[in-house]
Amino acid sequence: METSNSLSDELKHIVGESGMLPKEQVSAYTYDGMVPKVVIAPSSVQEIQNILRFVSDQSLSVMPAGAGTKLGIGNLAEETDIVLVMTRLNKVVEYEPADLTVTVEAGIRLAELQTELAQHRQFLPLNPPYADRCTIGGIVATNASGPLRLQYGTPRNLVLGMHVAHINGTVVKSGGKVVKNVAGYDLNKLYIGAFGTLGIITEVTLKLAPLPAHQAILAAQFQSIHDTVNTGLSIVSSQTLPSFVNLFVNVPINQFEEKKPTLIVGFAGDSETVAWQLNATQTLVEQNGALGVQIIEGESRVNISHVVQEFPAVDNAHGTSLVKINLKRSDIAEFAEQLRKETNEMMALLGNGVLYLKIIINSNTDFQRLANTLTELRQRVIDLGGNLIIETAPPELKRQVDVWGPIGSTENLMKQVKAKFDASGLLNSGRFVSSI
Question: Does residue 35 register a pLDDT over 90?
Answer without folding.
Answer: no
